[in-house]
Amino acid sequence: MNYQFRWTTITNGIVLLLCSAWTLSAQIPQRIPDVPYVGTPPRVVEEMLKLAGVTRNDVIYDLGCGDGRIVITAAQKYGARGVGIDIDSQRIRESNENAQKAGVTGQVRFSQQDLFTADFREATVVTLYLLPSVNLQLRPKLLRELKPGTRIVSHNYDMGDWKPEKVVTVDLGEFNEHKIYYWVVPAR
After folding, report:
1. pLDDT band for position 38 (cuts 50, 70, 90)
2. Which of 35, 51, 113, 175 is close enough to 118 for a disulfide, judged by CB 3.0 to 4.6 Å?
3. What is the pTM (predicted TM-score) of this model?
4. Backbone angles phi and psi of 18, in degrees to 5
5. Residue-averaged pLDDT of the chain
6. Is 120 left (phi over 0), alpha (psi -120 to 50) or beta?
7. Secondary-structure percent of the chain, ordered helix, strand, coil, rounded to 5
8. Strand pairing partners for 59?
């Protein structure tokens, strides 16, 4: 029996197994998403960006970006730069494909990250479509890390006792109303 061949085969198999495990672990979220993916209707996206007063000078961060539609629309319609953050690798792939189709890959980027550990201090606008409990968990980080004057817009859910500066209702017909909440990070 050729021990050299056998040892090489075993070693190569172990290396291949470790590489496969590493690749697979890089594709699996560090934890299960806190929120199921539900896309924001286009009219609501438009109203969120309008309420935030997005301009070409803004850097918009969409936390839990899903398919990237908010960041992509901000780039297309207002010329803003944007970053989408999502824990789900499938959503990030979809966002990148959508940005490519929309021709805005030079203005936007998408990152698979946990939004509780992500760095979004560069944002001038933050958009959210999360759950009330997640908004409440995220609120201290937003207030601690965002610059005063940063605008925050949330689809359908508020932030507990932090009263919004504005609330807008978008009526899409037949019992299909969406609330949009708007805050500005206060001076420290």
Report:
1. confident
2. 113
3. 0.81
4. -65, -40
5. 86
6. alpha
7. 40, 20, 40
8. 81
Q: What is the 3-state secondary structure (H, E, C) of 4-26?
A: HHHHHHHHHHHHHHHHHHHHHHH
Rounded mean pLDDT, 116-122: 95
Q: Largest alpha-carbon pair distance within the chain? A: 79
For the segment 32-38, the average pLDDT, to the nearest whole number, is 67
Cα(56)–Cα(82) distance, integer angstroms? 10
Contacts (Cβ under 8 Å, ≥6 apart) of 187: 148
Boundaries of every domain in the chain? 1-30, 42-184
Query: Which alpha helices (H) appear in 53-119, and where do they start and end?
Result: 69-73, 89-102
Beta strand 59-63 with 81-86 is parallel
For domain 42-184, give the CATH number: 3.40.50.150
**How many CA within 13 A on the CB side of residue 69?**
15
For 95, the 3-state DSSP assignment is: helix
Give the residue-averaged pLDDT of 77-89.
Answer: 96
Q: Which two tokens stand for residue 164?
A: 């919004």
Q: Are 76 and 104 in contact (CB under 8 A)?
A: yes
Which has the closest alpha carbon to 74: 96, 90, 52, 92? 52
Q: Report the pLDDT value the prediction gives residue 33, as an integer from 0 to 100.
A: 62
pLDDT at 34: 66
